[in-house]
Amino acid sequence: MWQPPPMPVPASAPWGLAISEGDFEKLKTGLEPLDQEDKWRYKATSDEGNDTVTIHIIRVGMGHELYSIVIKTDNSGNGSKINTIETIDWSQDQGGNPISEALAKKHVVVLSRCNLECDFEAAPDYDSEDFFDELAANIVHNINGINVVPFGVAKIAWDMDHQDVPGGPQYSSRFPERLQGYVFTFSYF
């Protein structure tokens, strides 16, 4: 039987998000990467004893499972099915980026909408450009006296500092004032 790859620094929380039968089918069908441009794999496993399906969301290049959601289907007496994401498991440390419960749920929704064209109608309408919920200035790690900022978050802060420049963004090699003197690591999002 297929086993998911390890999940670094795992955490778990209840969710209770209702999803449509169409979204449930898309999640169960999954996603297999076709080439190196594909970054995510979705794989479903069933637990017949609990009548649940677990969707494993794996970052292909890293070989780690970063998220998994457990979905339970309730068959009501009138013939309709109610699919609910009961729980979410996630990796709390993703390339130096701390991932909170709220952010993990946002990631699952955004990734599933982008990769599988799920609707997740009961979830908020997140902007896929807003993948992180904290500014780079708030995600600084001090390692042996050196301030380290994940590169993907630094780029977001750089873009934010340059988005309202008259005449459009002015791209230069200069990082925002608040990020000067930091070492940048590469993120994998």
Report on this model:
- The chain folds into two domains: 10-116, Alpha-D-Glucose-1,6-Bisphosphate, Chain A, domain 4; 136-185, no CATH class.
- It is 20% helix and 34% strand.
- It has helices at residues 21-29, 101-116, 151-162, and strands spanning 10-19, 40-47, 52-59, 64-75, 81-91, 93-94, 97-98, 141-143, 146-150, 183-185.
- The protein has a five-stranded antiparallel beta sheet. Strands 8-9-10 form a three-stranded mixed beta sheet. A two-stranded antiparallel ribbon has the order 6-7.
- A hairpin with a 4-residue loop joins strand 2 and strand 3.
- It is globular.
- The two termini are 29 Å apart.
Topology:
Layout: E1 10-19, H1 21-29, E2 40-47, E3 52-59, E4 64-75, E5 81-91, E6 93-94, E7 97-98, H2 101-116, E8 141-143, E9 146-150, H3 151-162, E10 183-185
Parallel strand pairs: 9-10
Antiparallel strand pairs: 1-5, 2-3, 3-4, 4-5, 6-7, 8-9
Q: What are the segments in which pLDDT stays under 50 over at least 5 consecutive residues?
A: 134-140, 151-189
CATH class of the largest domain: Alpha Beta
**How big a fraction of the residues is strand?**
25-35%
The H-and-E topology, N to C, reads as: EHEEEEEEHEEHE
In the CATH hierarchy, the third-tier topology of the largest domain is known as Alpha-D-Glucose-1,6-Bisphosphate, Chain A, domain 4
The assigned CATH architecture of the largest domain is 2-Layer Sandwich
Strand order of the largest sheet: 1-5-4-3-2
In short:
This protein has 189 residues and is an alpha+beta fold. It has 2 domains: 10-116, Alpha-D-Glucose-1,6-Bisphosphate, Chain A, domain 4 (2-Layer Sandwich); 136-185, no CATH class. The protein has 3 helices and 10 strands, in the order βαββββββαββαβ.
